[in-house]
Amino acid sequence: MTLFRRGRLPCLTLAFIAFSAAAAEPSQFSAWREKMSPIVPLTYVARHTATPIVIDGRIDDTAWAAAPWTADFTDIEGDAKPKPRFRTRAKILWDDQFLYIAADLEEPHVWGKLTQHDAVIFHDPDFEVFLDPDGDTHNYFEFELNALNTGWDLFLPKPYMDGGKARNDWEIPGLKTAVHIRGTLNDPGDTDTGWTLEMAFPWTAFTPPGGTSAISPQAPAEGAVWRMNFSRVEWQITTAGGRYEKIPKTPEDNWVWSPQGVIDMHRPEMWGRLLFTRRPGGEPVVVPPVAGHMARRVALDLYYAQRDFFKTHRRWATTLAELGWPVPAGTEPPAFAATAEGYEFSVPFNEGPRPRKWTIRQDRRLTLD
Fold it and tell me: Are residues 177 and 315 in the same domain?
């Protein structure tokens, strides 16, 4: 879902969010520390296929049989919430032209109303894909699809919470999608089994609109790792009157592959990790751990602590002492720099032959040097 969950906030500027949310928004640092940082993002190894996938929504190509399913989707907030009512899972493959995604959604009543491209698709039950190729939480891509095979593609220069505004003008020339209904679409008189879908994203799609990208518009190199997540929006419905209607004042369900910890898909730092390989399916491949994991966590600690400080003081803290943030044992003190836009923290660590660092800015851009 492209907007904040539950509250349905539109695309707002950073200043408006920072000043107006003080009364309603809980501590972002507490949410990060208590709900988000304990979660270990899931991983998936995407294998190269020598045979292009036929996009018909049925997931019956021979190549799919060798691709493992993801873990079953869970609530967006994680295991603390009830298990989803219906099963959802996905598969991923790729070749030199396309990134292929398939999904299986269990559903006793398959319905959809939206037929206009780039409509707000999550107002129907839908399946959503989120991709951040270079993993810096900026310049990421989202695609949503409903059971009518109606899609919404959009680009985010940065998360909404940081003042990002969705670019609906981003389109995907060459995109292929298809849906297969196991049952009868929009018929409350019977019980369905669910629906499956297939998508083929051309590699040329992953370039920001009107600009350049650090990601080459071609198939990834061996061992490349992207940040990725899937989401399913489900609504509780009634069939009174012989048609599907949402139950009033009932929030949607948000089921995801890799939990976010909070009800907001636009926390790219929490997305799962997707590794690309050309090695055959029988050969074990392990997604390597995140370099400097603790330093990365410290950088995000500082980012969320600064958000809370700004909410109270209407400015950024200029020192760690002012921020009131203690350096965790076993980590090196971060370096702080004031910038024209806000601030930049660098958190050093030592792994391998040379010193490295994670750097984070006030707009959450998170990079590894």
Answer: no
Closest among 143, 129, 146 to 70, alpha carbons compared: 129
Which tens digit of pLDDT belongs to each residue from 304-352? 999 999 999 999 999 888 998 888 777 788 999 999 999 999 999 999 8
- Give the list of residues 6+ apart from residue 52 with CB closer than 8 angstroms, or none: 95, 97, 98
Burial of 272 (0-12, 13-18, 19+ CB in 10 A): buried
Q: If DSSP codes are grouped into helix, strand and coil, which group holds residue 230?
A: strand
Domain that holds residue 106: 40-277
pLDDT at 15 over 90: no
Scanning the structure block, which residue is given the tokens 């269990």?
106
The CB density around residue 148, as the number of other CB atoms within 10 Å, is 18
| H/E stretch holding 301 | helix 293-313
108/52 Cα distance (integer angstroms): 31
Quick one: which of 35, 137, 31 has its CA closest to 368? 137
Q: Which of 229, 249, 277 is the last residue of a domain?
A: 277
CATH no. for residue 258? 2.60.40.1190
**CA dihedral over 317, 322, 323, 327, signed as positive or negative:** positive
Contact 222, 125 (CB under 8 A): no
Together in a domain, 135 and 249: yes
| Alpha-carbon gap, residue 335 to 353, rounded angstroms | 21
Task: Among 86-90, 140-144, 242-246, name the one with the lowest average pLDDT.
Answer: 242-246
Contacts for 137 with CB less than 8 Å, ≥ 6 apart: 158, 159, 268, 269, 364, 365, 366
Q: Which of 247, 277, 307 is the last residue of a domain?
A: 277
Q: What was the pLDDT predicted at 20?
A: 34
| Backbone dihedral region for residue 324 (phi beyond 0: left; psi -120 to 50: alpha; all else: beta) | left
Mind listing the pLDDT tens digit for each residue in 81-112? 999 999 999 999 999 999 999 999 999 999 99
Residue 162, helix vs strand vs coil: helix
